Amino acid sequence: MSAVTFAHNKSKPLPETEEKEELTSVRITVNPVQSRMFSPPRSSQSTAGSFSIGAQSSGWCPILFERASKAWWDPRFDSKVLEEQYHRSTFPLTCQRFQYALLYLFLASVSYCIYFACMAHSDWIPFVVTSFVLMCYIVATLLFTYTKHYQKYYFSVSLFTTVFLCALSLSVFASYIGKQSTADLSLSPIGIFCICLKILLILYTVIPLPLYLCFLIGGTYSIIFEALSAVLTEDNTSLIIGIKVMLQMCIHMIGILILLMAEVRMRKTFMKVGQSLLVRRDLEVEQQLKERMIHSVMPPKVAKWLMSTQDREDEEQQKPESGKRRISTSPRQSQMIFRPFNMHRMEEVSILFADIVGFTKMSSNKTAEQLVGLLNDLFGRFDYLCAKLGCEKISTLGDCYYCVSGCPEPRSDHAKCCVEMGLAIIKAIGEFDEDTNEDVNMRVGVHTGTVLCGIVGTRRFKFDVWSNDVTFANLMESTGKPGCVHVSEATFSYIQDIYTVEEGLPQHEVKTYFIRGRKLAARSGNRSCRHSWPTNSIPLPNIHHPGGRKANSLSERGNDSEGDGSTMPMLQPQRHGSLSTLTSSRKDSGIRSRRSSLQDVMLDTSYVSPTNLLSHRVGPGCFTSSQTSLADTGRGSGSSVKGCSLLVDPTLSLNESLARLRHLRKQSDLQMIRCVQQDAGHIDYFVKPPISQLSLFFVIPAMERDYRQLHYRDSKDVTLTVSSATFNMYCDVFVSAVVYIVIAVSCFMLFHSPLPWLLFCLLATCWEMFIILLCLRETFASRGYCRAACLSQVYRFCTQWYPWHICGAILVSLPVASVFSNFSCGNVLTTPEKTHAFLYLMFVSIFHFCNFTHLNCWLKSILASTAVAGLVLLLSASYCQCSVDYWPEPTSVVSTFNRSDFLGPDDMVVETNTATVLYHCGHSLVYEIILDGILITILIWFLNREFEISYRLSFHGSVTAARDKKKIQAMKNQADWLLHNIIPKHVAEQLKSTSKYSENHKDAGIIFASIVNFHEMYDESYEGGKEYLRVLNELIGDFDELLNRPEFKNVEKIKTIGSTFMAASGLNPHIRQQNPHPCTHLFELMDFALAMQQVIERFNCDLLEFSFIFRIGYNFGDVTAGVIGTTKLYYDIWGDAVNIASRMDSTGIPGHIQVPEHCMFVLQDVFEFEKRGSVYVKGKDDMNVYTLVKKKDGVDYPTLPLAEPNNSSDEELETEGSPPL
């Protein structure tokens, strides 16, 4: 497939749908046909394999948030359904903030009402009435917010409240009309300016209006306010007007930043919460799938141990010594290093072996496809009976089926369960003959005794049982009669009151019996009718990757009574074949018809109802993220959760493909919304966040630690958005720099420049420039332009929790510190204009403490409170002397003060000016400043608290979503690890698409490697033989580790049969096609056999007084691979070549590798052989065989000349059933 970059052509509009949704950046991989159809001009070609539509991170400006529309002035999702659900989910929080704002306004109006009444200025009555009217409106509005109608009319209420507040505050200027002086007014220009700033900040932060409307109303209000102020107030010089305009712009900038960050964070939190809920749902489904998968392979007790072992291995992968063997937890006399090992001794366990009589005859006239279907049907019936009758299936070996009862969970009726299973199997084979017109029968043997149950090996493992009693149960089957259940004396002792029996021939001096029927007392429960086979399985939710069951082999057992060596008919060349005739065979297994559900949706969305789409599993963030990648992964099957690859239909036009993608994304949005609506707690998540109400720290200490370590850094695999911590910090620094520059320039223009101010300005400017330089360096470094290592280290240090709080506290305090450094009696309190300008600068600088949402709210609020307290102390303390002659008329409050309190030393009259008197010498305006300072402080505390909660919620949502994704990915990895230990990966991939697998392979290599003398070591008198199986587990584990080497990539382990290891090569068509020579996989398999010999030689060095003897049989030829089973899937190969390989092992020489003559001719270019002679092989008579001497020195594998590729071999490989690309 080729990847081509496209640019959307605006002249070709997309088809209109019911909702005009904006598509965000996506990536689509197209095939060569579409590449030719839509390829752009050569100058614009790229290898990126993507094209972008809609809002995206372009250049230096990131997108607002995931799935943001193009309208940055009105942040919204590009999906109507997402936007509607967002408002429904966050409305309680929006309503709560608006109620808090109304409470604050109520507090402010009450405070002003009391203040106006106490001051009793000449115009106090209109101000008190205005404050009372505001109180009444606020109370009425607050009560209305608690009604059910508020959600419908919240926009109108918010808009009217905003306009009402602006109009009410502007009406104050009416008292200034016709006044020559503002000294005795109830509200000074400073007080009016403070009200303006508070209204602007409330408008931008807590009143639920869109950004563009806030800006329009706020901008219009500021313009009208400054125009009236310039005309009606005394301080209307051009310099003061210009400074006030710049200060208004600073407040607008701070307000817009707070509103924008709060909005994008809240939307990010909503998306993360929705994705987290979606992931949690998938996590539950994945958990159910994994449990069904592993419980169908092994009992729950063993499965729990296996998964816990895998979890520990995953946790230790990052450790330096994670690859070493771990210490066993089993009690031992001396602690030794072993692999994890789980083996249990179970007593009173009944073992059943059942062998198909007539299997060779049945297989002789069947194609492999037909044979696999028949076996799958038959063994599927047995699986159903096994689960129904209380037995635990162990495995299938060739045409043999065996199970146990009473293991791993003990039960008292184990013998009866096995006998009933045997009788049901015989009845089922008769029904099978009727259904398929075959003539086969079953030979069943049952024995009761002690077993060791557990898992041996690390790859292609399976739950199995070992003991001498298991061997004896196998003997009971092989010495039985067709159509009869052959039981031992031990089993008979448990069932003698239930069944009538016929005595059989003793085996190893043990009496045996044949079951003739049930006694009269037990016959009432017997049914003579046909079995009711399941036709529908329990539905299992579609999961994107295949689940499966343990696979095992159909190959010949060593004691197979039917192995006559007849050649198995091969499948006709085709892509894949049928697997099962039993309807429930694949559904019950968890693999089901498992082409990826996402692939199903993509390839046929027009025929899938929305209800079915919602039931499909779509990876969270796949189509709901803003940067959906549709080309990165999943090209084999056409789907993937990570990246969500889309297999584009070459017959579709670009517009049709995009319309389909739009439909898919909408369905994904609906799926997430369904999860959100079903979770009743997500609303409480916004209203009652998981943080302490006092400190605002996370309730979970680990989350607080992560917040302090990570919240300044963005993950590298996350798309940069405005809500990202890095960009947020850049914005805070930028706004801080602008406010500082405005304040500093204003100070230079208004006041004389004292030396402390000059020194402070120099240091503050250097600090601002240093922080900006760090941010610029990080911005350029992220794009590969600047990589200064020293600055990078400084940046990483400064963005840690405590260093950044120190840096941020300095930055956020620079404006207010700049204003304070210019204060002096002669510099500020000289004229009303300068005094007013000083207070204007001071209040804007205090409001700047709302910036830097990264910083802890307590830190910023305490700094703001300190600044207000310092301002009040400067204006109210007797720092500057007053003029007694210039004493204003006393007011109701001022009259309580003694004039002597304000006289200079020795009762001398000190000349001063109006500004000093108004704001220092006991005039009521100082109380106005105190009141404004208190109200500003309360507002800053409230806003800082609310928006730190918002920021922490955003972080918590991101971390929770990432954690849930990590969990589900770990769950998927575990399921994939389990699946690929049951079924080869390439087989599992095909099962995704077809839910069935049977495939022919020409010239596949097969080896059987047996430990000849393991039975001599095995002794059940010591710990029941458990420790000897531990040794076997170590050796098999060493063999399994060889498969991880790249030089053995063609080799695939099939299974272990007792102490025999079976492997094959050439079973993966994709790998075979990449080999330099058609026989490369055969050479690799022989090298693997030699490596096994080396492993056992090293292993023998660690054994005391015992050495294992190894014997290997090698062969290659045509085989058929398949997956059979219903409740337990097994992957295996069979064919005449497999039988011969087994005979090469059983007739071989201990310590040697034996091969038939035709193998020697192929391998002799690389290996040296010695002729052994003629050996009798069952079903083949005499065969000439050879033993391997060694690998030739300095000889590499042969390769085909590049000029003469073996096209015929490639064609053969392509017809071997490889899954379609």
Based on helices, strands and strand pairing, what is the structural class? alpha+beta
**Uncertain residue segments:** 1-59, 318-336, 523-527, 535-648, 883-917, 1202-1221
Roughly how many Å apart are the termini?
9 Å
DSSP summary: helix tally = 35
Relative strand content: 5-15%
Number of strand segments: 20
Estimated radius of gyration: 42 Å
Backbone shape? elongated
Give the averaged pLDDT, no decimals: 75
Main β-sheet description: 8 strands, mixed
Helix content: 40-55%
Summarize the structure.
With 1221 residues, the protein is an alpha+beta fold. Helix content is 49%, strand content 12%. Helix 5 (189-205) packs parallel to helix 7.
Features:
elongated; disordered C terminus; alpha+beta; nucleotide-binding; eight-stranded mixed sheet; 1221 residues; lyase
Question: Which helices and strands appear, and what pairs or packs with what?
Answer:
Layout: E1 6-7, E2 26-28, H1 32-38, E3 51-52, H2 80-119, H3 124-144, H4 150-170, H5 189-205, H6 211-232, H7 238-297, H8 300-315, E4 343-357, H9 359-364, H10 368-388, E5 392-397, E6 400-405, H11 414-436, E7 441-455, E8 463-466, H12 468-478, E9 485-488, H13 489-495, E10 499-503, E11 512-518, H14 520-523, H15 597-603, H16 610-615, E12 628-630, H17 654-678, H18 682-687, H19 701-710, H20 725-750, H21 755-781, H22 789-798, H23 801-820, H24 832-847, H25 857-876, H26 914-919, H27 925-982, H28 985-994, E13 998-1011, H29 1014-1017, H30 1026-1042, E14 1051-1057, E15 1060-1065, H31 1069-1074, H32 1080-1102, E16 1110-1124, E17 1130-1134, H33 1136-1146, E18 1153-1156, H34 1157-1163, E19 1167-1177, E20 1181-1191, H35 1207-1214
Parallel strand pairs: 1-3, 2-12, 7-9, 16-18
Antiparallel strand pairs: 4-6, 4-7, 5-6, 7-8, 9-11, 10-11, 13-15, 13-16, 14-15, 16-17, 18-20, 19-20
Helix pairs in contact: 2-3, 2-17, 2-27, 3-4, 4-5, 4-6, 5-6, 5-7, 5-24, 5-27, 6-7, 7-17, 7-20, 7-24, 7-27, 10-11, 20-21, 20-23, 20-24, 21-22, 23-24, 23-25, 25-27, 30-32
